[in-house]
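A quick aside before the break. I want you to see a complete sequence-to-structure record at least once, exactly as it would be stored in a machine-readable document. Don't worry about memorizing anything.
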Amino acid sequence: MTTRPANLLVIFGATGDLAQRMLLPSLFGLERDRLLPEALKVLGCARSELDTEAFVQQARETLEPHAGADDGDALDRLLGRLEYRPVDLAAKTSTGKLVREIKRRRNDGDVLFHLSTAPRWYPTICSALAEAGLDDPGTRVMLEKPIGHDLQSSTEINEGVGQAFAEDQVYRVDHYLGKDGVQNLLALRFSNALFEPIWNARHIEQVQITVAETVGLEERAGYYDEYGAMRDMVQNHMLQLLCLTAMEPPSRFKPTAVRNEKLKVLNSLRPISGSDLEANSVAGQYTTGAIDGKTVPGYLEELGSDSSTETFVALRTHIDNWRWSGVPFYLRTGKRLPRRVTEIYIQFRQVPHSIFSGAAGSLKPNSLIIRLQPEEHISLCLMNKKPGLDRNGVHLSQVALDLDRHSAFDQENRRIAYERLYLDAIEGNGTLFVRRDEVEAAWSWVDTILEGWHTRELAPKQYQAGTWGPSSAVAMTERHGHSWRE
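That is the input. The structure line, written in tokens, reads:
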């Protein structure tokens, strides 16, 4: 299907938290660099009874802290694109009136609908758009995660959306895929001949993926207690990182080719169920502790009620295919951990025989560390001889070859993830968005673990805020001769 840049962006949920924190600032970043189509208009929709003038003023107050001294013209240009119409999604007459107005404004150009609402409204909105004739090949729809609470609800939502829009018109957002460091993982793997020959089970001992947060519930108590760490982080962000780390080289950097390879990884994930559950999965919930020297309350204190929701997950899994047979993939995520970090740690196998058996200093395996946040950083750790005369034997030490992307590309703008996602969606490039079968394959794998926990009544284990999770998470790696990188 041939696409044109959209000349109308319609944001449902335009007064919500995501719009204020990410969407409007991202549009402003694109406007500042004149990357938005000249004819693009932005129509905000939400339940708030505002007029366009009030919405524009609200947007100005949101964006002014992001604007520099020379950004006044860019801010005015973006604000000049904005309009607003209130809508009550529960009232069919209100929704119908809005979509008829959108149809009149379209002017024969492509339209991008961004559904930044609760996922239960996705089928309702898409149905209304289709009834108004706004489902033709020139329309696209962005969907925010989480798409469902489990496989069944995800399938129902996707079915509802699929009745209105073809799959290649649906752009499911996982904002991690918009991060520059995540995209650089593909560049690192598939544009350097150094890595591809050793990116397999013959040379790699283990892989660890960590997404650690220091924050607690913040303003998301109701949402988080319903979803927990498994649904909020593992089902989407972490499995996407695993796919990009483990996937085969796609034939080209195009949506279908990339998504096909990611789906193969998800379909090759070994289920964690039955007697394997307690050995290969750990759920935790934080209690009172300290972060950066400050006392913080436990999860139940923050929530204000009893709950068995997990705030920490550690998993040991395998990808049962030719490339990765026998290599454990460790996944770890949690709230109120000692530091905020997202990184992929790849440990290579030891040399088959050390000629330095009597040398001072231990011979450590080589490793590659790909840090995605808080700052993007790549380190390749190698063994090196310490300078000196070595009269008592060779002294060895591990040295990191660092690629500091901030220093290497200090003249380049740092992009918010949604800047890339918006630009691609506006231009009709779906490569960095998630396909329906990926979402449902991920839910299927995660549901097996969640159902197993429930059936076996495996309650989350407590861990003190400011630590790296329950002790059983450490034991899970150490019984196999591995240790978490901390």
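Two observations worth writing down. The chain is about 35% helix and 20% strand. The chain has a mean pLDDT of 92. We'll return to this after the break.
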